[in-house]
Design goal:
With 305 residues, the chain is an alpha/beta fold. Helix content is 32%, strand content 27%. α3 packs across α4. The radius of gyration is 24 Å and the shape is globular. The model has no long low-confidence stretch (mean pLDDT 89).
Protein backbone atom coordinates (compact mmCIF):
# COMPACT_ATOMS: atom_id res chain seq x y z
CA UNK A 1 0.00 0.00 0.00
CA UNK A 2 2.75 2.44 0.97
CA UNK A 3 6.42 2.00 0.13
CA UNK A 4 9.16 4.58 0.60
CA UNK A 5 12.82 4.25 -0.36
CA UNK A 6 15.50 6.60 0.97
CA UNK A 7 12.79 9.18 1.75
CA UNK A 8 14.45 12.37 2.94
CA UNK A 9 13.06 15.79 3.80
CA UNK A 10 15.07 18.88 4.68
CA UNK A 11 13.92 22.29 5.82
CA UNK A 12 17.05 24.32 5.21
CA UNK A 13 19.64 22.94 7.62
CA UNK A 14 17.07 20.88 9.52
CA UNK A 15 16.89 17.20 8.53
CA UNK A 16 13.27 16.23 9.25
CA UNK A 17 13.41 12.75 7.65
CA UNK A 18 16.60 10.79 7.02
CA UNK A 19 16.49 8.05 4.33
CA UNK A 20 13.31 6.35 5.54
CA UNK A 21 12.44 2.95 4.04
CA UNK A 22 8.81 2.33 5.07
CA UNK A 23 6.58 -0.57 4.05
CA UNK A 24 2.86 -0.62 4.81
CA UNK A 25 1.38 -3.79 3.35
CA UNK A 26 -2.13 -4.40 2.07
CA UNK A 27 -4.31 -5.31 5.05
CA UNK A 28 -1.99 -3.89 7.72
CA UNK A 29 -3.03 -1.98 10.77
CA UNK A 30 0.22 -0.06 10.92
CA UNK A 31 1.10 2.26 13.79
CA UNK A 32 3.81 4.89 13.36
CA UNK A 33 5.33 5.80 16.72
CA UNK A 34 7.93 8.25 17.89
CA UNK A 35 8.59 11.23 20.17
CA UNK A 36 7.29 14.70 19.38
CA UNK A 37 9.34 16.16 16.55
CA UNK A 38 10.52 12.78 15.27
CA UNK A 39 9.01 13.34 11.80
CA UNK A 40 5.74 11.38 11.98
CA UNK A 41 3.45 14.07 10.57
CA UNK A 42 6.03 15.09 7.97
CA UNK A 43 6.08 11.49 6.72
CA UNK A 44 2.27 11.38 6.49
CA UNK A 45 2.19 14.66 4.56
CA UNK A 46 4.81 13.40 2.11
CA UNK A 47 2.86 10.18 1.51
CA UNK A 48 -0.28 12.19 0.77
CA UNK A 49 1.49 14.54 -1.63
CA UNK A 50 1.09 17.55 0.66
CA UNK A 51 4.85 18.05 0.77
CA UNK A 52 7.63 17.39 -1.72
CA UNK A 53 10.52 15.16 -0.73
CA UNK A 54 14.10 16.40 -0.84
CA UNK A 55 15.23 12.93 -1.96
CA UNK A 56 13.93 9.37 -2.24
CA UNK A 57 10.82 7.74 -3.70
CA UNK A 58 7.25 7.12 -2.55
CA UNK A 59 4.75 4.64 -3.95
CA UNK A 60 1.10 4.69 -2.94
CA UNK A 61 -0.87 1.63 -4.09
CA UNK A 62 1.89 0.94 -6.60
CA UNK A 63 1.87 4.46 -8.09
CA UNK A 64 4.66 7.05 -7.70
CA UNK A 65 3.63 9.97 -5.49
CA UNK A 66 3.06 12.84 -5.97
CA UNK A 67 3.21 12.34 -9.77
CA UNK A 68 0.25 9.94 -9.94
CA UNK A 69 -1.55 10.93 -6.74
CA UNK A 70 -4.75 11.86 -8.59
CA UNK A 71 -5.11 8.27 -9.83
CA UNK A 72 -5.24 6.81 -6.30
CA UNK A 73 -6.70 9.68 -4.28
CA UNK A 74 -10.30 8.43 -4.48
CA UNK A 75 -9.21 5.26 -2.63
CA UNK A 76 -7.54 7.16 0.22
CA UNK A 77 -9.17 8.67 3.29
CA UNK A 78 -7.05 10.92 5.50
CA UNK A 79 -7.10 12.96 8.69
CA UNK A 80 -3.80 14.76 9.22
CA UNK A 81 -2.91 17.47 11.76
CA UNK A 82 -6.43 17.65 13.12
CA UNK A 83 -9.81 18.04 11.44
CA UNK A 84 -10.48 21.08 9.26
CA UNK A 85 -13.96 22.48 8.69
CA UNK A 86 -15.96 25.61 8.00
CA UNK A 87 -16.77 26.62 11.55
CA UNK A 88 -19.94 28.54 10.69
CA UNK A 89 -21.55 25.53 8.95
CA UNK A 90 -23.11 22.41 10.49
CA UNK A 91 -21.33 19.07 10.27
CA UNK A 92 -23.51 17.65 7.49
CA UNK A 93 -23.00 20.76 5.35
CA UNK A 94 -19.25 20.43 5.75
CA UNK A 95 -19.37 16.81 4.64
CA UNK A 96 -21.50 17.70 1.60
CA UNK A 97 -18.94 20.30 0.52
CA UNK A 98 -16.01 17.93 1.05
CA UNK A 99 -17.71 15.16 -0.88
CA UNK A 100 -18.63 17.44 -3.77
CA UNK A 101 -15.06 18.79 -4.01
CA UNK A 102 -13.40 15.39 -3.99
CA UNK A 103 -12.88 12.97 -6.86
CA UNK A 104 -15.76 10.68 -7.85
CA UNK A 105 -18.21 12.24 -5.40
CA UNK A 106 -21.43 10.73 -6.74
CA UNK A 107 -24.26 13.12 -5.94
CA UNK A 108 -27.00 10.47 -5.96
CA UNK A 109 -25.35 8.53 -3.12
CA UNK A 110 -24.01 11.54 -1.19
CA UNK A 111 -26.73 11.77 1.43
CA UNK A 112 -26.63 8.07 2.26
CA UNK A 113 -22.83 8.04 2.44
CA UNK A 114 -22.80 11.06 4.75
CA UNK A 115 -25.36 9.50 7.09
CA UNK A 116 -23.48 6.20 7.11
CA UNK A 117 -20.19 7.95 7.92
CA UNK A 118 -21.78 9.95 10.75
CA UNK A 119 -23.33 6.77 12.14
CA UNK A 120 -20.00 4.95 12.11
CA UNK A 121 -18.19 7.67 14.07
CA UNK A 122 -20.96 8.22 16.62
CA UNK A 123 -22.44 11.47 15.26
CA UNK A 124 -25.70 10.13 13.79
CA UNK A 125 -27.78 12.33 16.09
CA UNK A 126 -25.80 15.53 15.59
CA UNK A 127 -28.00 18.61 15.23
CA UNK A 128 -27.66 21.70 13.03
CA UNK A 129 -25.37 23.66 15.35
CA UNK A 130 -22.25 25.08 13.62
CA UNK A 131 -19.00 23.16 13.87
CA UNK A 132 -17.42 26.00 15.86
CA UNK A 133 -19.73 24.98 18.72
CA UNK A 134 -18.49 21.36 18.66
CA UNK A 135 -16.23 19.98 21.35
CA UNK A 136 -12.74 18.84 20.34
CA UNK A 137 -13.90 15.24 20.45
CA UNK A 138 -16.88 15.99 18.17
CA UNK A 139 -14.63 17.77 15.67
CA UNK A 140 -12.29 14.80 15.69
CA UNK A 141 -15.22 12.45 14.98
CA UNK A 142 -16.36 14.72 12.14
CA UNK A 143 -12.87 14.59 10.63
CA UNK A 144 -12.98 10.80 10.76
CA UNK A 145 -16.40 10.84 9.08
CA UNK A 146 -14.94 12.93 6.25
CA UNK A 147 -12.13 10.39 5.82
CA UNK A 148 -14.67 7.56 5.54
CA UNK A 149 -16.99 9.13 2.97
CA UNK A 150 -15.62 7.14 0.02
CA UNK A 151 -15.13 3.81 1.82
CA UNK A 152 -11.36 4.06 1.25
CA UNK A 153 -8.99 1.17 0.63
CA UNK A 154 -6.35 3.07 2.64
CA UNK A 155 -7.00 5.19 5.72
CA UNK A 156 -4.21 7.57 6.82
CA UNK A 157 -4.73 9.09 10.28
CA UNK A 158 -2.73 11.46 12.47
CA UNK A 159 -3.59 10.98 16.18
CA UNK A 160 -7.16 9.78 15.43
CA UNK A 161 -8.23 9.60 19.10
CA UNK A 162 -7.05 13.10 20.02
CA UNK A 163 -9.60 14.85 22.23
CA UNK A 164 -11.73 11.74 22.84
CA UNK A 165 -12.69 10.39 26.25
CA UNK A 166 -11.87 6.75 27.16
CA UNK A 167 -15.19 5.48 25.79
CA UNK A 168 -14.65 7.39 22.54
CA UNK A 169 -11.13 6.01 22.21
CA UNK A 170 -12.50 2.49 22.57
CA UNK A 171 -15.21 3.14 19.97
CA UNK A 172 -12.70 4.48 17.42
CA UNK A 173 -10.38 1.54 18.07
CA UNK A 174 -13.23 -0.89 17.41
CA UNK A 175 -14.27 1.08 14.29
CA UNK A 176 -10.75 0.94 12.83
CA UNK A 177 -10.53 -2.78 13.58
CA UNK A 178 -13.87 -3.40 11.84
CA UNK A 179 -12.84 -1.31 8.82
CA UNK A 180 -9.61 -3.30 8.56
CA UNK A 181 -11.53 -6.58 8.77
CA UNK A 182 -13.61 -5.29 5.86
CA UNK A 183 -10.53 -4.74 3.69
CA UNK A 184 -9.30 -1.23 4.59
CA UNK A 185 -5.60 -0.82 5.31
CA UNK A 186 -5.05 1.50 8.30
CA UNK A 187 -1.92 3.63 8.64
CA UNK A 188 -1.88 5.89 11.69
CA UNK A 189 0.57 7.78 13.82
CA UNK A 190 0.07 8.12 17.55
CA UNK A 191 1.92 8.69 20.79
CA UNK A 192 -0.50 6.40 22.71
CA UNK A 193 1.50 3.19 22.97
CA UNK A 194 -1.30 1.31 24.71
CA UNK A 195 -3.77 2.05 21.94
CA UNK A 196 -1.31 1.10 19.21
CA UNK A 197 -0.53 -2.14 21.04
CA UNK A 198 -4.24 -3.06 21.18
CA UNK A 199 -5.06 -2.06 17.60
CA UNK A 200 -2.06 -2.45 15.31
CA UNK A 201 -0.53 -5.52 13.69
CA UNK A 202 2.72 -3.79 12.68
CA UNK A 203 4.60 -0.76 13.95
CA UNK A 204 7.34 1.56 12.81
CA UNK A 205 9.32 3.81 15.15
CA UNK A 206 10.77 7.15 14.08
CA UNK A 207 13.47 8.86 16.12
CA UNK A 208 15.09 12.12 15.00
CA UNK A 209 13.89 11.51 11.44
CA UNK A 210 15.22 7.95 11.17
CA UNK A 211 13.13 4.77 11.03
CA UNK A 212 14.82 2.86 13.83
CA UNK A 213 12.39 -0.05 14.07
CA UNK A 214 9.81 -1.73 11.79
CA UNK A 215 8.33 -5.01 12.94
CA UNK A 216 5.13 -6.93 13.69
CA UNK A 217 3.60 -6.35 17.12
CA UNK A 218 3.54 -10.11 17.78
CA UNK A 219 7.29 -10.34 17.21
CA UNK A 220 7.99 -7.38 19.49
CA UNK A 221 5.76 -8.89 22.18
CA UNK A 222 7.41 -12.30 22.05
CA UNK A 223 7.54 -14.44 25.19
CA UNK A 224 10.52 -13.71 27.45
CA UNK A 225 11.02 -17.30 28.62
CA UNK A 226 9.56 -16.47 32.03
CA UNK A 227 6.16 -17.26 33.55
CA UNK A 228 3.84 -14.94 35.47
CA UNK A 229 2.27 -16.84 38.36
CA UNK A 230 -0.38 -15.55 40.74
CA UNK A 231 -1.19 -17.76 43.71
CA UNK A 232 -2.55 -17.31 47.25
CA UNK A 233 0.14 -19.81 48.25
CA UNK A 234 2.98 -17.53 47.16
CA UNK A 235 5.19 -18.34 50.15
CA UNK A 236 5.02 -22.09 49.47
CA UNK A 237 5.57 -21.51 45.75
CA UNK A 238 8.67 -19.43 46.52
CA UNK A 239 10.09 -22.30 48.56
CA UNK A 240 9.29 -24.92 45.91
CA UNK A 241 10.74 -22.78 43.14
CA UNK A 242 13.77 -21.59 45.04
CA UNK A 243 16.40 -20.28 42.66
CA UNK A 244 13.95 -19.75 39.80
CA UNK A 245 12.09 -16.69 41.15
CA UNK A 246 13.26 -13.52 39.41
CA UNK A 247 10.80 -11.17 41.10
CA UNK A 248 7.90 -11.17 43.54
CA UNK A 249 5.17 -8.61 44.29
CA UNK A 250 2.70 -9.94 46.85
CA UNK A 251 1.03 -12.99 45.36
CA UNK A 252 2.57 -12.42 41.89
CA UNK A 253 5.75 -14.32 41.07
CA UNK A 254 7.98 -14.06 37.99
CA UNK A 255 9.43 -17.53 37.41
CA UNK A 256 12.16 -18.66 35.03
CA UNK A 257 10.46 -21.58 33.27
CA UNK A 258 9.95 -22.37 29.56
CA UNK A 259 6.49 -24.02 29.82
CA UNK A 260 3.59 -22.49 31.82
CA UNK A 261 1.45 -25.64 31.42
CA UNK A 262 4.18 -27.87 32.78
CA UNK A 263 4.84 -25.49 35.67
CA UNK A 264 1.12 -25.32 36.45
CA UNK A 265 0.84 -29.13 36.53
CA UNK A 266 3.79 -29.53 38.91
CA UNK A 267 2.49 -26.86 41.30
CA UNK A 268 -1.03 -28.32 41.33
CA UNK A 269 0.43 -31.76 42.11
CA UNK A 270 2.19 -30.16 45.06
CA UNK A 271 -1.19 -28.89 46.33
CA UNK A 272 -0.81 -25.19 45.45
CA UNK A 273 -3.77 -23.09 44.37
CA UNK A 274 -3.26 -21.21 41.10
CA UNK A 275 -5.25 -18.06 40.32
CA UNK A 276 -3.42 -17.05 37.12
CA UNK A 277 -0.52 -18.42 35.12
CA UNK A 278 0.86 -17.60 31.67
CA UNK A 279 3.93 -16.58 29.71
CA UNK A 280 5.48 -13.19 30.37
CA UNK A 281 5.65 -11.06 27.24
CA UNK A 282 7.55 -7.92 26.43
CA UNK A 283 5.45 -4.79 26.28
CA UNK A 284 5.43 -2.61 23.19
CA UNK A 285 6.51 0.24 25.43
CA UNK A 286 9.71 -1.53 26.46
CA UNK A 287 10.52 -2.42 22.84
CA UNK A 288 10.03 1.19 21.70
CA UNK A 289 12.00 2.72 24.58
CA UNK A 290 14.92 0.43 23.81
CA UNK A 291 15.37 2.09 20.41
CA UNK A 292 14.48 5.73 21.15
CA UNK A 293 15.87 6.25 24.63
CA UNK A 294 14.90 9.56 26.20
CA UNK A 295 13.11 10.90 23.11
CA UNK A 296 13.97 13.54 20.53
CA UNK A 297 11.92 16.35 22.14
CA UNK A 298 14.13 16.28 25.26
CA UNK A 299 16.69 19.10 25.59
CA UNK A 300 19.60 18.38 27.88
CA UNK A 301 21.67 21.04 29.63
CA UNK A 302 25.11 21.39 28.09
CA UNK A 303 28.18 22.09 30.15
CA UNK A 304 29.70 25.58 29.72
CA UNK A 305 32.77 25.73 27.53
Amino acid sequence: MITTSGLTKRYGRILALDAVDLQVRDGDRYGLLGPNGSGKTTLLRLVLGLLYATAGQIELMGRPVPRHLAQVLSDVGALVEGPSAYGHLPGRANLRLLDAAGPNGARRTRRDRIEEALERVGLAGVDSRPVKAYSLGMRQRLGLAAALLRQPRLLVLDEPTNGLDPQGIREIRELLHDLNQGGTTVFLCSHLLGEVEQLCTRVGVLDQGRLVLQESVDTLRAATGRVLLRTPDADRAAVLLDGRIDARTGDLLVVRHPDPAQLNASLVRAGLRINEIGPERRSLESAVLEVIGAGSDRIERTAPA
